[in-house]
Amino acid sequence: MNLHPPCFQVFSAAAACGFLLKPAFSRGQETLDQALDNPALAWTAGGDADWKVVAQSDAHAGSSVAEVWLKTRPGENYGFLLGEPVSWLETAATGPGLFTVWVRHNHNPYTTVALSVDGVVGEEHLIYSYPPGEQPFTGWYRLTAYVPPGSHPVRLTHRFAAEGTLYFDNPKVQADDARVLPPLGPEFLDALDVPVGSCQWVAGGGGEFRVLPAADAHDGVDALGSDAAPAGWDDWGVIAPWLQGDITGPVTLFGWQRSAGPNGNPPAGEWEHFLFFIPPGSSRLKWSGWGIALDELRELSAPEAGLKEALESGDLVFTQTGGVWKGVSTWAAPDGTDAAWTTLPAEGQSSLSTTVDGPALMRFFWTVQSLTGFSQDAPDTVLSCTVDGIPLKLGDGSWSGVLPAGQHTIQWTVTSQKAAGKAAALLLDQVQVTPLASVPLTEALDTSPDLVWTTGGKPWTGVAGPAFPDGQDAVVPPVPAAGEVQWLETRVTGPGRLTFQWAGVETMPSWYDPPRGLALDLDGRRIIHQNTAQPWPVLELSAGTHTLRWTVTGTDGLLRPLMLDQVQWTPQETPVWLEAVEQPAVAFFSADGNLLSLEPAKSFAGGSSLRLATTGGWDVSPRSPTLLAIANQPG
Question: Is this prediction's pTM over 0.90?
Answer without folding.
Answer: no
